[in-house]
Amino acid sequence: MWQSCPAKNEVVIALPHIELTGKVWGADDKPLLLALHGWLDNANSFEPLAQYLSQHYQVLAIDWPGHGGSQHRPGGYALHWVDYLFDLDALIEHITATRPLHAVIGHSLGGLIASAYTASFPERVRQLVLIEALIPLSEPETNARQRLIKSVLQHRQRPGSPAKAICIDAAVKARVKLTGLAEPWSRLILSRNLTIADDLAYWRSDPRLKLDSPMRLGPLHVEGLMNPHQCPTMLIVGDKGFRPMTRHQQDVQHWFTNLTQVELPGDHHLHMGNAVDVAQHILACLMPE
């Protein structure tokens, strides 16, 4: 199913269209959980949570294309969030060819992708856990022109020069300041998004990830995609989380035919900072007494 690497719990997964890297925790004979990280994060973001889940499950956390050690999408074209749906479909097809998939856990962008995918293919995923995510982001259709213009201009101005060496400590401080993510977790994530050569650090993330998408779904598109959502789903949010991700929670919960909601102490990355509580609720959901 995957190729193990010399480094501890590192794996490579060769899909038909792209090669992904990832990390795995837990024994091969345990039920498998697939973990999908958020935008500009990587598989390392699930390390704190996996320490608790791997007592009962094997946890596979992948790097999305352009993140961590995974390949970048070819060409210089703009990136689209729907491309991740094809990645997820190919990944699940690859995994389930040799063993069952017990559940999918998605954080932020990973949760949006998993939620949209399971709305269309509920038979492919037995259970779904969403952390700080619920439905795909949308905006009024009247924004379409301005979004396209902004995206095209950003891509036109994107520099093509070789990456410059950076200071790891400075990058960590910048991420802490920008996102509020605690320093140890920022460092854990950034360490996988960097490559070290001659004692210097370079970004290996796809720079296109920071550019605006040329198109976003409208509200009616999202409703047509998500309603009804039949996959058994647990939604976990932080009391200090990123509200734009879950602001539609009350308005759209009736789209989900089997939704359990939990609010826990923590921020947008509460699966790192509050891994104990998050793991306990996930285990209670996946392993009912």
CATH homologous superfamily grouping:
Alpha/Beta hydrolase fold, catalytic domain
Instruction: Give, in spatial order, the strands making up the sheet with the most strands.
Output: 1-2-3-5-4-6-7-10-11
Structural class: alpha/beta
CATH class division: Alpha Beta
Helix share of residues?
25-40%
Strand and helix order: EEEEHEHEHEHHHEEHEHHEHH
Whole-number tally of structural domains: 1
Question: Distance between the terminal alpha carbons, to the nearest Å?
Answer: 31 Å
Mean pLDDT: 93
Beta-strand residue fraction: 15-25%
**Rg calc:** 18 Å
- Biggest beta-sheet profile: 9 strands, mixed
CATH architecture: 3-Layer(aba) Sandwich
CATH topology, what is it called?
Rossmann fold
Mass-distribution shape: globular
Strand segment tally: 11
Low-confidence residue ranges: none
| Structure annotation, total helices | 11
How would you describe the overall organization of this protein?
By secondary structure, this protein is α/β, with parallel strands linked by helices. The chain has a single domain (3-140, 212-286), classed as Alpha/Beta hydrolase fold, catalytic domain (Rossmann fold), CATH 3.40.50.1820. It is built from eleven helices and eleven strands. The chain has helices at residues 47-53, 83-96, 109-120, 144-157, 168-179, 183-192, 219-226, 243-246, 249-252, 270-273, 275-286; strands at 3-4, 10-14, 19-25, 32-36, 58-62, 103-107, 128-131, 194-197, 200-203, 233-238, 259-264. Strands 1-2-3-5-4-6-7-10-11 form a nine-stranded mixed sheet, with helices on both faces. The model has no long low-confidence stretch (mean pLDDT 93).
